[in-house]
Amino acid sequence: MKSYTLLPGFLLLALTAAIPVPEPTPPNIPSSSSASTLLTNLIVAPQGPQDGYSRDLFPHWVTIQGECNTRETVLKRDGVSVQTSSTCAATSGSWYSPYDGKTWTLASDLDIDHVVPLSNAWKSGAAAWTTDRRRQFANDLANPQLIAVTDELNQAKGDQGPEEWQPPRTSYRCTYARMWIKVKSAYALTVTASEKSSLNGMLATC
């Protein structure tokens, strides 16, 4: 935003820059070299069938503390100056979506992305898990599995893997790959050959 102040004999141009909202950093993101090693150790296998899959088999969002569920906890973690109601709903704040570089001030404009989608996990090994294990995966705050992003972008991603979908903000693809690899490694999920190739290509941008 530009503002002008008139002084005797001068026109003073003052540039007032908006204070940038910090980029959210989910926990436990490995370095690119560590991610490369983790990727090498992942089992490469074709995806299993979608048969029997339902999002209800991955209970979310669960209560984390008091009135706050997982979604509300991530919104608080990833936002700036977030204010909440007595029921923990975000009433104000700012959120920067690193997938597309957009900033939002309404919590309703954000989705909490499962970096490794629930459906992808199901076809990569989670079909054999217990409900408790799937609940842990769907609400994981210890690994880089959850992040607040532009809702429409999250919906466009759907259950696609990195061989089909990558953040449109290319400078974030390195981080996205490191997050994806960490989650797959933490839960001993498999990767397909094309998925691994795409992840290696994304790490090459680091």
From TrEMBL:
Leader peptide range in chain numbering: 1-18
Keyword Signal: yes
Family matches, as InterPro entries: GmrSD_C
Keyword Transcription regulation: no
Keyword annotations from UniProtKB, A to Z: Signal
Domain GmrSD restriction endonucleases C-terminal: 105-199
Pfam family, one: GmrSD_C
Domain of life according to the entry: Eukaryota
Protein name as annotated: Secreted protein
Species name: Tothia fuscella
